Amino acid sequence: MNAWYLVVAAAALSLERICYLWVWHRPEAFRRFCSKPRVAALGEPIDVLCKLFYGFKCLQVTVFFGWCHVYGHGSLFPPAREMVWIGMGGTLMLIGQLLNFSVFHRLGKIGVFYGNKFGYSIPWCDTFPFSLLSHPQYVGAVTTIWGFFIATRFPFEDWYVLPVLQTAYYLVGAYLEGPRAFSNDSSSRRIPLLISRAVSLSHRHNLFRGRAGGTGVG
Fold it and tell me: What is the pLDDT of residue 123?
């Protein structure tokens, strides 16, 4: 496996999570950024974030297809694929997108794109999918990613690399959007603690906090 491809992919895929964490923790800084003439032409901060969301999704899809092109030697689907894996991957993708669309349906544009950080009142939501998961859109995004690579790259040795990377990014994002991510006490020890929790499945319940207004964008 070419380490350079992984570094480029990891850097490109990290931009989305970095942007959302910036908005979550520094909404006023993002608002000032959106007040610049060229950016303000795109609309209010929520409108700008929505457009960034679609841009990041295009980048994500480009990275995924590029990965499959490189390691598939120019082919998205390797030859002699077993339909069972394509079916399994497709099913996971459908489940993931169901969760994502359900979040948009329940919260709307303002709720999904951090409206509570920009002064909007977001009502608490405890119906599906929030009755099932605390971070349904993150879970939906990760499920979709795993499904895509099961359908396109399994069982080749590279099939799990980007799904694991993306899962780690979403876990880190969920944790850093939590209420205690940047408390004043012992902030210098947050990085090791974060890494420990991100890689430990036994701490998943600590990583998914918040519902409406805090679900994040996947």
Answer: 86
DSSP assignment of 34-57: HTSHHHHTT-SHHHHHHHHHHHHH
* CB contact at 8 A, 171 and 196: no
Cβ partners under 8 Å of residue 151, min gap 6: 77, 85, 86, 88, 89, 90, 93
**What residue spans of 78-135 are helical by DSSP H?**
83-112
- Name, in order, each residue with C-beta under 8 angstroms of 49's C-beta and a sequence gap of 6 or more: 23, 30, 113, 114, 217
pTM exceeds 0.85 for this model = no
Contact 139, 182 (CB under 8 A): no
Residue 185 to residue 125: CA distance in whole angstroms? 31
pLDDT at res. 169: 96
Q: Which of 105, 115, 94, 102 is nearest to 216 (CA)?
A: 115
**Residue ranges of the domains in the chain?**
3-206
Closest CA to 67 of 150, 138, 161, 141: 161
| Among 55, 20, 52, CA closest to 135 | 20
Residue 215: per-residue pLDDT: 55
Spans of the chain, pLDDT less than 50: 181, 183-196, 198-199, 201-212
So what's the pLDDT on residue 214? Answer: 52
